[in-house]
Amino acid sequence: MSVYVFGHKSPDTDSVTAAIAFAELMKAKGEDYIPVMQGKLNPETETVLKRFGFAAPEIMTDAAGKKVALVDHSDLAQAPDNLTSNDVVAIVDHHKIGDVTTNQPIYFFNQPVGCTCTVLKVMYDLEGVAVAPKVAGLMLSAILSDTVNFKSPTCTPADKKAVAELAAIAGVTNTDEIFMEMLKAKSAVAGVPAMDLLHRDYKDFDMKGKKVGVGQLELATLDQVADMRDALLNAMKDQKGGERHSVLLMLTDVVKEGTDLMVVSDDPAMIEAAFGGKLANNSMWIDGMMSRKKQTIPNLQKAFGC
Ligand code: MG
Ligand code: MG
Ligand code: MG
């Protein structure tokens, strides 16, 4: 029976490329693993797949009746629909352990590093499987993306080592050039509907029974969204509806290394306190904030008493 490898909802480059790289590793071991994704490619991932000559994986959102491997997440909120404890046979991740459970022992590999593809490089080495050059290109792109070209606080020495080794395998000499090409693709906002921008890199989290959505847009400069603030705010209000406690949008300036945090919340004062900031026109600048996982989410969890 085939195993379908799922990244998280609102797929990012790590989610898609880790699904491909893990499926390739398992195929090399004689197993039938098929990479899929839960939504359409974002512009950054599209650029990466094209550069290294890969077709987009099939879109699949329902796990009913399937054997499933999860990469880049282990939260039910980010997992495919109708997932049961019987279905999951493997998890490869670099996040905090989520709420997915299993009924039998599984292949579980998680490390506190900057990217799932860094974990996968370690797994390839452990299994003694050579990474194909094209796959190495995908993996190093994902690491550059997740670590924001090594600038994110999530970046570890293991990520830098993996990129150096993968670049040698892929025959890539200038990784900065790859990062800039990805940044150009991902920060292109002109003509894109605000709701699509909110969902470009978006996740819902359960905070003590309250649903909180956090999106992130990585930009070369905040000027790129200057004309779109009202539209983004309206999209956040629509997204929040009555269902969510808060919706946050991180407008991250990759060059200045900080985030203008847009907030729509039932309790704005609580969000202000969580980040030690003061909202003006529904947003506040947080110097040094680059990572949703390592900075935004832990602060929110503390504020919600998780
Ligand atoms: Mg991800
Ligand atoms: Mg990741
Ligand atoms: Mg990310």
List keywords for this structure.
306 residues; alpha/beta; inorganic pyrophosphatase (n-terminal core); Diaminopimelate Epimerase, Chain A, domain 1; 2 domains; six-stranded parallel sheet; five-stranded mixed sheet; 10 helices; 38% helix; globular; binds magnesium ion
Task: Sum this structure up briefly.
With 306 residues, this protein is α/β, with parallel strands linked by helices. The protein folds into two domains: 3-183, inorganic pyrophosphatase (n-terminal core) (Alpha-Beta Complex); 194-304, Diaminopimelate Epimerase, Chain A, domain 1. It contains ten helices and eleven strands.
Q: Cα-atom Rg, whole angstroms?
A: 19 Å
- Please give the largest β-sheet: 6 strands, parallel
**What is the H/E string?**
EHEHEEEEHHHHHEEHEEHEH
Counting helices, strands and paired strands, the structural category is alpha/beta
**First-to-last CA distance:** 39 Å
Q: Tell me, rounded to a whole number, the average pLDDT.
A: 96
Strand content: 15-25%
Number of strands: 11
Percent helix, as a range, is 25-40%
CATH fold label of the largest domain: inorganic pyrophosphatase (n-terminal core)
Number of discrete helical segments = 10
So what's the overall shape? globular
Number of domains: 2
Written description of the protein model:
The protein has 306 residues and is of the alpha/beta class. It folds into 2 domains: 3-183, inorganic pyrophosphatase (n-terminal core) (Alpha-Beta Complex), CATH 3.90.1640.10; 194-304, Roll (Diaminopimelate Epimerase, Chain A, domain 1). It is built from 10 helices and 11 strands. The relative contact order is 0.11. One magnesium ion binds at residues 14, 72, 94, 115-116, 146.
